[in-house]
Amino acid sequence: MDKKLTKQQARDQKRLARPTAKKAREDRKKELALVDQKHKRKIREKTVKADKKNKKEVIAKKVA
């Protein structure tokens, strides 16, 4: 009888197994940052070699 969980305990276990909203938000933010970095890298490779200031402006415009 000791091993059997009550309904409340089972519910709590399921709830704790899921990521919290805060954790999920952070994970999503990290994933988006990675995608954004890849995107910037691709654009940077495509941009014609120009002076640094101009190049940064081009990258900023395309990504933003």
What does this 3D model show about the protein?
The chain has three helices and no strands. Helices cover 77% and strands 0% of the residues. Helix 2 packs across helix 3 (52-63). It is rod-shaped. It has 64 residues and is mostly helical.
Helix content: over 70%
CA-to-CA gap between the ends?
60 Å
Largest sheet: none
What percent of residues are in strands?
Answer: under 5%
Overall structural class, as computed from helix and strand content, comes to: mainly alpha
How do the SSEs run, as a string of H and E? Answer: HHH
Determine Rg (CA atoms, Å): 23 Å
- Total beta strand runs: 0
| Separate helix tally | 3
Apparent shape: rod-shaped
Walk me through the topology:
Blueprint: H1 7-17, H2 21-46, H3 52-63
Helix pairs in contact: 2-3
Précis, in short:
This protein is rod-shaped. The chain has helices spanning about 5-15, 20-45, 50-64.
Please give a handful of descriptors for the protein shown.
single chain, 64 residues, mainly alpha, 3 helices
